[in-house]
Structure formats: structure tokens, C-alpha cells
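note to self: dont lose this again. the chain is below, predicted strucutre after it. 246 aa total, dont forget to put it in the shared folder this time
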Amino acid sequence: MRMKGWAWAALALCAAGTARADMAPGQVRQCATVVEPRSVEYPWMSIERWHQLNRDKTALAAKGNVDVLFLGDSITEGWPKSEWDSHFGRYKAANFGIGGDHTGNVLWRLQNGSMDKLRPKLVVLLIGTNNFGLCGEAPEQVFNGISSVVASLRQVYPDAKILLNAVLPVEPNPDHPRRLNVAKLNRDVARLDDGKHVFYRDYGPLFLQPDGTISPAIMPDYLHLTEKGYRIWADALQPDIARLLK
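---
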């Protein structure tokens, strides 16, 4: 079942930029380039639930017939059906987002199951925020993780273009250290744009108020999107997807 963005506020509030409950303050769990399936139980998703979701995605991949592959974490998983259908229904699009995933989890999924059976023309990638929130990693580590995911995508889908999304802003205050870490990360991620296979887009400013704050009408937990937030993202994505599919 696809969950709407607002529902993640109740289930995944702990991912809104805070470290895991079982981590001591300042502790870092290596996630960025450690290729692994889900190994941590969360109140909002058990390990078994993660594996079931992965089995569902594997079965979807085995069917093939996907031109636009969305890949990421809960922000990707949470697309409301109405926005998905109205903006991407014209494409052969498939959602491969799984809540709570960090870059290491995505690397594992790309190397296991049937994802190599797909032949997408375009991959829409948004990943990295959980490396901060659930792993406590620094921007440099998260960048290494995103770089590794992009490299893996290039290997698995050499003919596909990659629409690389900047990590979305978090926290209501624009001067919050976590917001600044995201901005630092995105400056590095922008360098992965090669104008040929990888195309970087920062849609983050579209979710901000004029003063740089985030409205809870768009991000109720300052991480996940409401239906209004998804509409903003979809309106921005659609012309880029159409252009890259030409």
C-alpha cells in the first residue's frame, strides 16, 4: 500500500534529522558505501517488513516494462496515487522507493533481486537524507554514498539517463546545522552532473517560504511531503522527465 506523504509524519518522525534511538549522541553508523539490506528495527518498519517490500519491488522488476524508474526512500515511496497518476501516468513509470533507506540499502537493492532485469530510459533518484538522520553521517560521507549509487546505476543501466535530485531541505530554520549540512552536500552532489548521463536538479527552493523557512503545509515534520508538497515536486519533475525522455 502506498502511504501518503502526511502519514510518514506519524510513522517516521524520528528520521527528521535526529540520530537513531539506539545511537549515542555523536555516534556515527557507517551507511554510505556499506552495501547491506535493512539491518535495524524501527518502530515504523520492521526488518521483515523491509524485506517484504523489497520482495514486492523485486517481483515488479521481474515484470520489466519500465521506462521511468523512481528510486529512493520514504519521500519517493510516499507518492499519492492522484499526483502519481496525473503527472506520470503517461509514462511507464514504477516506484522503487522504500522508507528509511540510506545509500547502502539502495546499493544492495541494485545488486540483488531482479533490478538488473529492468531497462529504464530514465532513473529519478532521490537518496541521502537518511544517511544524516538515521546514520549520523557527515556531508562528505553522504556524498560518497550518493556517488556510489550513481556509479552503480551507470553500471546496471548504462543506457539510462539519471535525473539526480538534490537532497531536500530539512528543519524549519534555514540556519539549522542540519539544513546547512544538506546545502553543503548538495554543492558537492551538483558536481556529478555530466550533462550527458547524469542531470542534477535542485528542487529544494520550491519548498521554501520567502524567508527560507519550511511550511508544515508542505512538510509537516520538516522532512516528508504533504500532497501539496508532492504536487510542487511533480510539477517541477514533469518537464524535466519529458525533456530527458526525448
